[in-house]
Design a protein that fits this description.
single chain, 75 residues, mainly alpha, rod-shaped
Length: 75
């Protein structure tokens, strides 16, 4: 579960940080456009990553359940 937390945090912090950097007066000066775009991109990345992690976890749990049932069946 620690991996999930770090993944979500970094998925949001990195794009928002890049957007914030682009919004500075010395860069493109479009405050808060790129920060919000970064938040949207980070949210999509975090959500899709969470879905992939949950599907992988579910497949592992199903495999363990089948292995346990087969082991009990064979004695």
């Amino acid at each position: 579960m620690l991996t999930v937390g770090w993944y979500v945090a970094l998925s949001l912090i990195v794009p928002v940080g890049i957007g914030y950097w682009l919004d500075r007066p010395g860069m493109l000066d479009k405050n808060p456009l790129f920060t919000l775009i970064g938040l949207g991109v980070g949210s999509v990345i975090a959500f899709s990553g969470l879905i992939r992690m949950l599907l992988r976890y579910q497949a592992e749990q199903e495999e363990q359940r089948k292995y346990k049932e087969q082991k009990e069946k064979n004695g």
